[in-house]
Amino acid sequence: MTTGVLWPHIASSLYRMGCGLALALITAIPIGMAAGRSRHWDALLSPFLYIFYSIPKVVFLPVIIVVLGLGDFPKIFIIAITVFFQIAIMVRDAAKAIPEEQVMTMRSLCGTKWQDFRHLIWPACLPGILTALRTSLGIALALLFITETFAAFSGLGYFIMNRMEVRNYEEMYAAILTLAAIGIIAYMALDIAERKLCPWKK
């Protein structure tokens, strides 16, 4: 770390994982909410969510690389689709669990759809979103490592395997500890965010 050799690889890994999680969030949240709050969308989407959730998406990595090429996007995509299903299912279950009495109370107060979302649906789903993110971190880091050892020339996964091949074990262990530290820090940050953003869970 003192030579700075790890920093470009840390940046590459953080970029790929951050983009993968962001892509999963912006797609999974609206789909999960739609399935949770609408019987029509639930009947349409839930079978798809549960079937594909059980399939290990990493086995499609060679196909994804063939279709999408060798850049960052295939690595981002495989992280995104894996985390997507976990978040979508958690959001769907949280939205579906909202008592109908609370919805009717909001409507009796002439609440708009935006007010329903802001004051009822979003607070109900937010803990599930943060919990899904926390439980997905380990999976995302494992996928990051796997994808970066497959047709990559940067990132902590690539760096670890490269240093193992040249028997530079000091830098290899430094990279492993760095990857572990990223996971621990991210988990702690999400735990703090959940306590700050969801005080009603205490």
TrEMBL record:
One of its GO terms (biological process) is transmembrane transport. It is a multi-pass membrane protein. The keyword Nucleus does not apply. Keywords: Cell membrane, Membrane, Transmembrane, Transmembrane helix, Transport. It comes from the Bacteria. Belongs to the binding-protein-dependent transport system permease family. This is ABC transporter permease. It comes from Megasphaera elsdenii. The lineage of its organism: Bacteria, Bacillati, Bacillota, Negativicutes, Veillonellales.
